[in-house]
Each structure stands twice: as C-alpha cells, then as structure tokens.
Design goal:
9 strands
C-alpha cells in the first residue's frame, strides 16, 4: 500500500510539474521581451498578508473553471505563510472549494520570491513582480512566463487600473493576450475579456 501511495504521489507530482513548466502545448510567446528574466520586487510581508481577489490570470487546469476566487495569506511565527485558496466551480451558487498550501519566502529575495508547496514533495516558485505603493494591487508571476496573476484587495477593479497592470506585464515580456479576467460577480459571466467557465480559453 505504501508503495502504491508513493507511486500515485509521483504521478500527480509529474502531472503538476509538466503542466506548470510549460510542457503542455503552451503557445509561443510573441512578446519581443519574452526572453528577458523576471525581476522580483521587495515585499513587506506583514503588510502583504490578508485577502487578495484574483482579478485575472492565464487560465490553466487548476483554476480554469473557478469563479469568485480569492487567496488568503497568513504569516506564521516561523516565517512561513499559510496560503488558502478559495473558488467556486463554474457557478456562483456552487459549493466553495478550499485548497491549502504552505509558502516559504526564499532567503535573500526580500520577500519577493516564495517556494510554494502544492502537495508534498512538489514545490513551485512564485514571484512577486509588482506591488502598488498602497498594497491594493499586486502582480504575481512564474518563471517561464506561462503563468501569471493580477490580484486586488477588492473584488472589483476599474478597466483603467486593469489595463495599466497589463501594460506592466507586457513590459516584463508576458503575452498579455493570454490573460482572462476572473468573474467575481454573476453578471460578469460571459462578458468580453472574462474567462468562460467550461470553455478552454
């Protein structure tokens, strides 16, 4: 039984890593700055904690059909971060799903790079690429630029702010055409620019 569990964990870990590292038929990145390395920014971790709403992301298997999603971060006494992710499958009246992760700030990166434990022993790297001076918005990225997120302290974001954050991602070398807004309210379902649960955007 133990050997079976270890084998199953290895299979899940392999699937997760292949999906996150760009081995799953991601389109080529046309941005002329695609090859430039991503640079993290310093983060005041206590101020960074709390609730963040997922305003937009590059859709991928784990988040593709979720709506009303948000992250909640809590700094632990040992310096690690309890990372809770919430979302509903396709519909706002669906039961809320809750996933738990453990994040570890990487030494020497001033809080801007985290090692995120998805499932033991799988860790991925999360990069903080921008934080607004008032800590209302933040941009998260992933090495390889095949994943990216725009977070906000509130579930709503004006089009002007959203496009200004997309412009930052473009300057970093992201293919911003791949980003889709995450519906945070029922009336956003099906609107242009928003992810359509059930469809592969």
């Amino acid at each position: 039984m133990r050997r079976f569990v270890c084998a199953a964990t290895a299979v899940v870990a392999t699937v997760v890593l292949l999906s996150l590292t760009g081995c799953s038929n991601n389109p080529p990145n046309p941005n002329p700055r695609a090859g430039e390395p991503l640079v993290t920014v310093p983060v005041d971790l206590p101020r960074y904690m709390g609730t963040w709403y997922i305003i937009a992301n590059i859709p991928y298997f784990a988040e593709r059909d979720l709506v009303g999603s948000r992250a909640e971060w809590k700094l632990r006494p040992d310096g690690k971060i309890d990372d809770s992710y919430y979302g509903r499958k396709k519909r706002f009246d669906a039961p809320e799903k809750h996933y738990r992760f453990l994040d570890t700030p990487v030494p020497g990166k001033e809080g801007g790079e985290w090692s995120v434990q998805l499932i033991w022993p799988v860790h991925v790297t999360q990069l903080t690429l921008y934080v607004a001076p008032d800590y209302r918005y933040t941009i998260l990225g992933y090495p390889g630029k095949n994943l990216g997120w725009i977070f906000s302290r509130e579930p709503d974001m004006s089009d002007d702010v959203y496009h200004s954050l997309l412009a930052r991602l473009d300057a970093m070398g992201y293919d911003t055409s791949r980003f889709r807004r995450v519906p945070q309210h029922p009336d956003q379902l099906g609107k242009p620019g928003f992810a359509s649960p059930g469809n592969k955007d």
